[in-house]
């Protein structure tokens, strides 16, 4: 019997989740179809340039999912499930501080980390955990009730966890076990038909719609699946023309004439989905909940710590100018700020150490016997090597919170007189019993490996600057 490797498991998992979610949320299928149309049009118009940040095959297959869990124990279990698919926790995101409304979660993203694995299938799942211990959202009585409720549910059956552990340990599974793993994993993220306790859900919803979605039901589910598109502004226009209500903005950097950096995201609004609701007298009535939406993303170049500091600073400038000029469109303000302060080419980003690149020898490099310069920027400028941008594989807390917030029906409540409970990368690493990786370190390692390879190939001793 043939064995199924982790990347094949991951690709199958992403494809089956996508099929399942399309059946549950038909507008998602429309989003995927429009994304594919836009990508094909961009590829026809731009040729090879359209694939600067990933082959069209990768971009078309690419998805990120989002799920929500309630406790460190559930987060630990979901880490085991995703480890089966070669997906590791990368980055720590505190959405409590990133939104004006009540979003009481901290998050990480499970994804492949090796360059070859990302090229095969870069499936990511943005995974949020409810911050039950934060008294700004949950007083002692509600916290106790919530902890009891969450302790009494099982999101991931023991058979799924056992198969996941084996796949993670062996890096593959026999075909029959692989099929069983995929079946159980997809089923774990389906929307449950079990009636929702109406009074309990509404109690949590007064605090936060996100809290209700996590702690008000006895299961978890896919909140959104996100295709990748090469022109998100055009996709926004086409979805709107089809009569699908989009959120008000595209989150992240503005559309401008320079290089795309980091991540731009938008979504269609959360849909009212029919759900069975259990009333206090034990009866079951038909209700509707708005918790799931369709997100789409356009990915740009990964920025270094310096580049990210510049990005965050520019966002601050945009906020300031938007507050001072409320009649001016925020997108226009942002574009003007970017064009004044963000380098307008990949070459400038690389030269200023603001973005990550990998390097390969140029097929047209000088062959006159001259010695190459011992500086990577000069090597690129003199055509000894070619710089290829690293795609940003991660997320932006402010953008994620903006998407969440745009799809909430209310602001919720937060008691800012209380001291918030501290959560950080180290806490989360301990909770899931595996290191939450630093995304900057991962990009830097890829870049440094390629630079070292160039130094060896060109016979440059010492450190290549």
UniProtKB/TrEMBL annotation:
Pfam families according to UniProt: HGLS (PF07063)
Cofactor needs: Fe(2+)
Species per Swiss-Prot/TrEMBL record: Streptomyces fodineus
Keywords of this entry: Dioxygenase, Iron, Oxidoreductase
Enzyme Commission designation: 1.13.11.93
Listed name of the protein: 2-oxoadipate dioxygenase/decarboxylase
SMART domains in the record: DUF1338
Species classification: Bacteria, Bacillati, Actinomycetota, Actinomycetes, Kitasatosporales
A GO term, aspect molecular function: dioxygenase activity
Family, as annotated: Belongs to the 2-oxoadipate dioxygenase/decarboxylase family.
């Amino acid at each position: 019997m043939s064995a199924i490797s982790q990347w094949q498991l991951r690709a199958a998992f992403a494809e089956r989740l996508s099929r399942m979610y399309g059946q549950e949320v038909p507008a998602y299928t429309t989003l995927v179809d429009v994304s594919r149309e836009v990508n094909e049009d961009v590829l026809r118009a731009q040729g090879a340039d359209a694939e600067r940040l990933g082959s069209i095959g990768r971009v078309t297959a690419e998805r990120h999912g989002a799920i929500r869990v309630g406790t460190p124990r559930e987060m630990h279990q979901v880490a085991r499930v995703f480890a089966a698919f070669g997906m590791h926790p990368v980055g720590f995101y505190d959405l409590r501080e990133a939104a004006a409304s009540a979003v009481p979660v901290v998050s990480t993203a499970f994804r492949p980390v090796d360059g070859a694995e990302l090229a095969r299938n870069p499936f990511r799942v943005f995974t949020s955990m409810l911050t039950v211990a934060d008294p700004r959202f949950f007083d002692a009585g509600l916290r106790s009730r919530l902890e009891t409720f969450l302790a009494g549910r099982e999101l991931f059956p023991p058979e799924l966890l056992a198969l996941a552990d084996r796949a993670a340990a062996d890096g593959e599974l026999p075909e029959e076990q692989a099929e069983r793993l995929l079946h159980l994993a997809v089923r774990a993220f389906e929307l449950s038909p079990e009636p929702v306790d109406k009074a309990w859900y509404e109690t949590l919803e007064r605090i936060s719609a996100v809290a209700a979605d996590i702690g008000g039901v006895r299961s978890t589910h896919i909140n959104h699946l996100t295709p990748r598109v090469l022109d998100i502004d055009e996709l926004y226009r086409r979805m709107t023309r089809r009569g699908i209500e989009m959120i008000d903005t595209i989150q992240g950097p503005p559309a401008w004439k320079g290089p795309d950096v980091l991540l731009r995201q938008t979504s269609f609004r959360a849909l009212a989905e029919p759900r069975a609701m259990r009333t206090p007298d034990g009866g079951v009535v038909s209700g509707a909940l708005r918790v799931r939406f369709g997100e789409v993303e356009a990915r740009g170049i990964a920025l270094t710590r310096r580049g990210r500091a510049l990005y965050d600073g520019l966002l601050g400038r945009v906020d300031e100018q938007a507050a001072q000029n409320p009649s001016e469109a925020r997108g226009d303000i942002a574009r003007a700020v970017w064009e004044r302060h963000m380098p307008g080419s990949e070459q400038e980003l690389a030269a200023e150490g603001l973005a990550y690149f990998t390097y390969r020898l140029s097929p047209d490099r000088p062959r006159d016997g001259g010695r190459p310069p011992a500086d990577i920027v000069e090597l690129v400028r003199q055509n000894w090597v070619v710089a290829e941008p690293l795609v940003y594989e991660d997320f932006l807390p402010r953008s994620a919170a903006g998407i969440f917030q745009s799809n909430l029906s209310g602001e919720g409540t937060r008691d800012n007189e209380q001291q918030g409970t501290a959560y950080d990368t180290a806490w989360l690493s301990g909770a899931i019993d595996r290191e939450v990786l630093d995304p900057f370190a991962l990009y830097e390692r890829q870049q440094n490996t390629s630079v070292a390879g160039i130094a060896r190939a060109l016979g440059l001793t010492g450190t290549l600057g």
